[in-house]
Amino acid sequence: MAALHHLALRTHDVERLLAFYRDWLELSIARDKRPASVWLALEHDAVLMIERAESDEPAIAQGSRELVALAVTPADRRCARERLLAAGMLEAETEHTLYFRDPDGRRVALSSYPLAAPPA
Question: Domain spanning 65-120: which superfamily?
Answer without folding.
Answer: 2,3-Dihydroxybiphenyl 1,2-Dioxygenase, domain 1 (3.10.180.10)
